[in-house]
Amino acid sequence: MTTSHAIETVAQLEALFGLPGDASLKKEVPYLHPSYQALIAASPFAVLATIGPGGLDASPRGDPPGFVAVQDEKTLLMPERRGNNRIDSLRNIVADPRVALLFLIPGVGETLRVNGRAQISVEPALLERFAMEGKPPKCVIRIAVETVFFQCARAIQRSKLWAPLPAGARPEVPTPGAILSALTKSAFDGETYDRELPARQRATLY
Fold first, then answer.
1. Domains and CATH numbers, the chain
2. For the sheet containing 111-121, what is the strand order?
């Protein structure tokens, strides 16, 4: 006879973890408090999570700090730059507007979480507002904010995410070209891809 160790109810979860502390509840608000606006203004990187008919998606977004603009305490504006044209996040938003954002700030342990509903805009004035190097984004994602709260620093501390690497050190992981070559059983020319990638990225950054 086997015994299941799966957690399947909220009651089981609460028995395992206990209830959240007072601070954990009070930090969540339905608007962009000035303190939270300051974190967004300092962030050069965010992860955008979406959901659609094909499932879930979480993808990175980055630009100079403050690249996600606070229009007002209930609205965020995020430029969508050129990429690989998969547009997984945008496809999901068209089907289901629910989104979540996780903002990271280099050197800061706390992260910021924002949940809301998104709409894709190609309004000319809005695109021009977010132009970089004379090039406007493909579109702008307008997010109606529903909940906002900061996440404590434990995950960043445990991972040592912001700890400096030794000079010249790089983690021993496969390169993009090597991954593509392995996935296609060498049908893809990974060495050429890796050799050309830095120049291509510089030329197509915006």
1. 20-159 (2.30.110.10), 169-206 (no CATH)
2. 55-62, 45-52, 98-104, 111-121, 139-151, 75-80, 69-72
Tell me the pLDDT of the chain (206 aa) as tens digits.
456 899 999 999 999 999 999 999 999 999 999 999 999 999 999 999 999 998 999 999 999 999 999 999 999 999 999 988 999 999 999 999 999 999 999 999 999 999 999 999 999 999 999 999 999 999 999 999 999 999 999 999 999 999 998 888 888 999 999 999 999 999 999 999 999 999 999 999 99
SS3 53: coil
Query: What pTM, to 2 d.p., does this model score?
Result: 0.93
Task: Give the single-character DSSP code of 130.
Answer: T
